[in-house]
Write a structure and sequence with these properties.
globular, binds magnesium ion, 236 residues, binds adenosine-5'-triphosphate
């Protein structure tokens, strides 16, 4: 309990600190958030009153069931709080305008398989940019680039459903990055990624963050990722 209080007060300190720095706009602003699942399970994330600044690389850590995925799902408006509010790029996820903000978010779900829907890897990665009205030529250029950067060009004609767990994660990441998002949400992206690929992906994400200013929020159980990747860690 003492430790929990300590985490809460540290997070509140971060909140005030971030709030001060966030005058030109935050990527994510979270109030005291309460979620109620349909079976009555309630998740309260009141210890995480903080703002995520644009261009931050934030790691969210915490025990199984602590609410990391729930929080990520709120950040993309897939879940809506029963109490409290969450704003992304200054817009409440409850607002009608959030649909536009949603187009600027890339996400990889903890169960990445559920988001792979196209008949081939290439089509899957191209889905979002095409859906957003990018021309064919620009989309093809971008998809080829992202596949090359992530080392998955050899998978481009494969059926996503038959890929290995790690390959699926990489394809989902390519899909999340394809339309050049401003905010990238990665839920346990490294859970079945080999060490070599993990290093490559971390360096790539840091490069994207520095060169393109993408805000990245990543959940993980692996402390070493936080050390090499995060500019800040939030512990739930
Ligand atoms: N669809 C759901 N219906 C009911 N309860 C749910 C649902 N999804 C999650 N929960 C519950 O909400 C709480 C938070 O779950 P969540 O998946 O956010 O945790 P997590 O921190 O991501 O855990 P993990 O480290 O295992 O991924 C847990 O108690 C979980 O059982
Ligand atoms: Mg989770």
């Amino acid at each position: 309990m003492a430790e929990q209080n300590d985490i809460i007060s540290r997070n509140i300190e971060h909140y005030h600190e971030a709030k001060r720095k966030c005058l030109t706009g935050c990527a994510v602003e979270i109030g005291c958030l309460k979620h109620m699942y349909s079976d009555g399970t309630s998740v309260e994330l009141c210890g995480v009153q903080l703002s995520i600044e644009k261009k931050e690389r934030v790691v969210i850590s915490g025990k199984n069931g602590s609410g990391k995925s729930t929080l990520i799902h709120h950040m993309i408006g897939l879940l809506v709080p029963v109490e409290g509010d969450i704003k992304v790029m200054g817009v409440s996820t409850k607002s009608k305008r959030f649909k536009e903000v949603r187009n600027e978010i890339g996400i990889v779900f903890q169960d990445a398989e559920q988001q792979l829907i196209a008949p081939t890897v290439f089509d899957d990665i191209a889905f979002t940019p095409l859906n957003l009205g990018w021309g064919k030529e620009k989309t093809v250029r971008r998809v080829n680039r992202v596949m090359e950067d992530l080392g998955i060009t050899h998978l481009k004609d494969r059926v996503p459903h038959y890929l290995s767990g790690g390959e699926k994660k990489k394809v989902a990441l390519a899909g999340a990055l394809a339309a050049s998002p401003k905010l990238l949400l990665l839920d346990e992206i490294f859970s079945n990624i080999d060490e070599q690929s993990k290093d490559r992906i971390i360096q790539y994400l840091i490069k994207l963050n520095k060169e393109e200013g993408i805000t990245i929020v990543l959940t993980t159980h692996q402390p070493e990722i936080s050390k090499i990747f995060a500019t800040r860690e939030i512990r739930l």
